[in-house]
Design goal:
The protein has 322 residues and is α/β, with parallel strands linked by helices. Helices cover 29% and strands 20% of the residues. The protein contains 9 helices and 11 strands. A hairpin with a 2-residue loop joins strand 2 and strand 3. The relative contact order is 0.13.
């Protein structure tokens, strides 16, 4: 399955077992644009596949998660969205977006490839802003091949103090006419240090693509996120949804140790509040001691996350026959 198209290249990030493919997209306000499809190499064609969409200041590197799905009989694909990770082009502003609908073309490109690779049933899996984007996609214009949605700590609401939240409407309005106005984010290395081997964590990844400190965004980005979140307040996703999040969030004044046992990026109560109303069939799973990206939590925690994912997929009839 890894040699059927000369456009596929060895994946320089993850090495053996993965292939990658660039997809050129129409130019936008910043020039040339592409996305990147990554897939696990499997010994024979499969009919059920998982498509992973990463979060903000991120890219696909979770090879262990991919291997878990492949062992369970699924095909596994991921997409690095435009201006992220493998898709980043020289001179581009990292993570720049003015409307989350821009990402729909990248998701559709990966789905088209999966269907061309014999996959007829797709599970869409989104993390953080990828969870926001995939939920928006499924609420508005889903491909009929997508049969389920898994959300890993989706960014369904802002995690900001009251004063900052009150500034969002003004930034949203400014973002319409002046999208490039910079918006500063408070530096916090706590989450990155809970992940990286340099600080006692388990993970190594490209820190130029996933910086230790969240980079500053702009008013156009704030506008795109806020509009998408508001649109999802009226969502009615038709496929089953698995909503997963940590049991607690890091709060101001918490010890550094808590960064290894909680969501250091989003407010889990807000995730739950909005996520429960995304559709008529939402299963919520709270993960004790889970990190923001649940599949990067410590081994005992992420093993439970994997088990919950596979059990739920079996429950809704999307377990492959090997």
């Amino acid at each position: 399955m890894d040699t059927d198209n000369i456009d596929w290249l060895p994946d320089s990030c993850l090495g053996d077992g993965f292939r990658m493919k660039y997809v050129q997209q129409p130019d936008d306000y910043s020039g040339h644009v592409r996305c990147t499809i990554v897939r696990s190499v499997v010994p024979s064609p499969r009919t059920i596949g998982v498509l992973y969409v990463h979060g903000f200041s991120d890219y696909f590197f979770q090879a262990e998660m991919a291997a878990m799905f492949v062992r369970a009989g699924y095909a596994f694909y991921a997409v690095d969205l435009r201006k992220y990770g493998r898709s980043l082009l020289p001179g581009q502003k990292m993570f720049q977006v003015r409307d989350l609908h821009e990402y729909f073309a990248d998701i559709n490109a990966a789905i088209t490839q999966m269907k061309a690779d014999t996959i007829s049933k797709i599970v869409l899996l989104g993390h953080s802003t990828g969870g926001l984007t995939t939920a928006l996609y499924m609420s508005e214009s889903p491909d009929e091949a997508v049969k389920a949605l898994i959300l890993n700590s989706p960014f369904l609401d802002w995690n900001l103090p009251l004063a900052a939240r009150m500034a969002i409407p003004a930034l949203r309005a400014a973002g319409r006419l002046f999208p490039d106005i910079p918006v500063h984010q408070k530096p916090d290395r706590g989450y990155a240090e809970s992940l990286l081997t340099d600080f006692g964590g388990e993970w190594d990844y490209r820190r130029d693509w996933k910086p230790d400190v969240l980079p500053d965004v702009d008013a156009g980005w704030v506008r795109a996120i806020d509009i998408a979140q508001r649109q999802l307040h009226h969502a009615d996703i038709k496929v089953p949804v698995l909503l997963m999040h940590s049991s607690t969030s890091v709060r101001k004044g918490d010890s550094r140790d808590k960064y290894s046992h909680a969501d250091a990026i989003l407010d889990v109560e807000r995730i739950a509040r909005h996520g429960r109303h995304l559709g008529g069939d939402v299963t919520e799973v709270t993960v004790p001691d889970g990190l923001h990206d649940l599949v990067l939590s410590r081994p005992s925690v992420r093993t439970l996350v994997y088990t919950d994912m596979l059990t739920w997929l079996r429950t809704i009839g999307l377990s492959p026959t090997k």
